[in-house]
Structures are given as C-alpha cells and as structure tokens.
Amino acid sequence: MNEISIQRLRTHVYELAGKIGEHNVFHPDALHAGEAYITQEWRQQGYDVRKQTYTAQGIECANLEITRTGNSRSNDVILIGAHYDSVLGSPGANDNGSGVAALLELSRLFQDVAPETSLRFVAFVNEEPPFFFWPSMGSMVYAKAAKQRGDPIRFMISLETIGCYRNQQGSQTYPPLLKYFYPDTGNFITFVSNLPSRRIMRECVRVFSTVTDFPVQSIATLALVPGVSWSDHLAFWRHGYKAFMITDTAFYRYPYYHTAQDTPDKLNYVPFAEMTNGLFLMLSRLANAVRRNP
C-alpha cells in the first residue's frame, strides 16, 4: 500500500477532467465541484482541511490546505502545491488534473509515514488566465498571507502538468538554444527553478536521483525564459520564498496543452505513477534528513 497507485491517479484525473470537466470561475459549479472533490478526498484520508476563501470575478473561490505535522521540526515546512482550476475551454487533464492527482496521492501516503519536518499540501485555485501573474491568482493570495503570518516555509514545490511521457525521438522541444543541452526524447521529468532557488532545487534533484531511476532533468535560469515561471511557484518567488516547479515541460512536449483535447485518456499513467512514487520517496528523505543549514 505504501506506493503510488496507477489506478488511483487515473481515478482522480478522470473525476476532475472527465466527470467534472472544465472547471474555472467561468464554470463556477464545476469549479466548486473540483473543490468539493479534493476536500472530500483529504477528509477521507484523515486530514483537517483549511479553506482560504476570497472572491474573484464575483465568484467565491478557495485555496485548500492540509498539513502533515512533523515530529521534531513542526515549525519547519516543506510546501507541495498544485492548482486545481482548468484553463478556459479545456477540461484540464494534464493541466492540472495530473498535479492534483499526485498531490492527493502523496498526502495519502504520508498519513502512514511520520515525517520529522512538516509537509503542507495546498490545492490552489485560479492559476490560469485571467488570474495568472496578478494579485487574484490563488497562489498569490496564499503566498501573501503566508508571508504576512511569517509561515516558516523552507521551500515550495509546484506540481504542474506532470502526466505526459514519450519514448519517441523528437518528442521533446525547448526554448531557443536549450535543445543543444537536453535530450530530444520526452520521457523525463524536469525540475525548474530561478537562480535564487537553484541550490534547494538541485538538492531535491540529487535526492530524487538516489531514490529512483526515473529520468530527470533540471534547469535553473532566468524567470523570463518562456515557461520557467508559468505556475504557482512564481507567487512564492515574489514573496521571498525559495520555490521550484516539477513538470513534464507542458507545451514543449504535450500537444494538447490548453486545448479541449486535454482529456484523461491522453496521459501516460504508468510512467506518471513511477515518477510520482519517486517524488514520495524524495519527500520522505527530505522530510527526515538532518538539516545542515538551518
């Protein structure tokens, strides 16, 4: 039982992007259905779900939060987040039903694992346009409040579009010039950070590589490179936290990105589960490691 389930990941994605379908403030009933599904799953796992509500476009919206409290370092927090809204015109299977599915499965496994460091799992609303980059983006609302409270977030991980893997040569593309430094087969997961967060991102890559042989690439670069800042980690950068994104590279690999064809049948669930299990093992190691640099 102590591993990521292919069937559970598939069930979550099919619920969010199949049964519920497009879910955003322009489809508020569906957005609230997504919120209710995540809330129900976390409560069934035994967590106390905290809601941070606010109004956007006249619709009441909510960020959802649970915490697996650390045994010896409860005031030291690693935050793992994923947005649960879909872009206008898309059911959002990979973007970002995949991230939410992984979030739900990671939290489920940590109910049976006692970490020393606290792990906080957050489902963010309103990551997609027209909210992205602006103050009403769910993670902006959340990170601003966390900063005002003085939350001791060691770093934040954004799970963003993580369900597409291809073994065909030429299936992976990149921004200009990067193709000379990275593989052209899209069978890997990527860790992406800005320069201030590169140290913690590289440590996470190192740990990930020690607990799984799933292919991984990483990049620490300027936020202006297209795609590097395009998720909820941006909000944490803006508020002074270390943060990075884990992604299958989205539109650089996935042809259905932000389209009506981003449906549950397009995901590759076997490698998706293998990768997510690697994330669980990575987080287990990180949450129980002795901190060298307080």
List keywords for this structure.
single chain; 8-stranded mixed β-sheet; 294 residues; 20% strand; 7 helices
Q: Overview of this structure, please?
A:
- The chain is an alpha/beta fold and 294 residues long.
- Helices cover 35% and strands 20% of the residues.
- The chain has 7 helices and 8 strands; from the N terminus they run ααβββαβαββαβαβα.
- Helix 3 (93-110) links the parallel strand 3 and strand 4.
- The two termini are 34 Å apart.
- The relative contact order is 0.18.
Short description:
The chain is of the alpha/beta class. It contains seven helices and eight strands, in the order H-H-E-E-E-H-E-H-E-E-H-E-H-E-H. The protein is globular and about 45 Å long.
